[in-house]
Amino acid sequence: MEGIEKDELMKGVKDGLYLGDQGGIEKLKEPLEPDRASDGVPRYQRRADRPSLSQLFKSVSKLRLEERNVLIIKAVMDHGCSQAKIASYVGLHYSTVSRIVKGRK
Predict the structure, then answer these.
(1) pLDDT in tens, 58-80
(2) Domain range spanning residue 104?
(3) Burial letters for 26-42: b for 16+ Cβ neighbours within 10 Å, e otherwise?
C-alpha cells in the first residue's frame, strides 16, 4: 500500500482534520466561533482555524515595542491565544503579556 508509511501525509495538520471543499469548511468554521461556549468541545477545537504563533509573530524581533504589543493584543483578543504561550514564544514573562493586554484601552 503506497503512502501508508509516509510521514508527509499528516505534516502540517494542526488541531484536527477537515474533509471537504472550501465552502463546506467555511460552514464548519461558523459554529466554531471562539466566544461561544460549547460544552464538551475542547477550546483548541473551537479555534481550529486560528493561525499558529509562528504565523502571528513572524518578525516579532524586528518590531517596535508598540507594534509588538498590538500583535500580542490581537493574538489574545482576536485569536484566543493563551497569554502564557504568547509570553513563552516572544520571550516575555506572562505577567508582562497580561499587563499589555489589560492596558489595551
Answers:
(1) 887 788 889 999 999 999 988 88
(2) 50-105
(3) eeeeeeeeeeeeeeeee
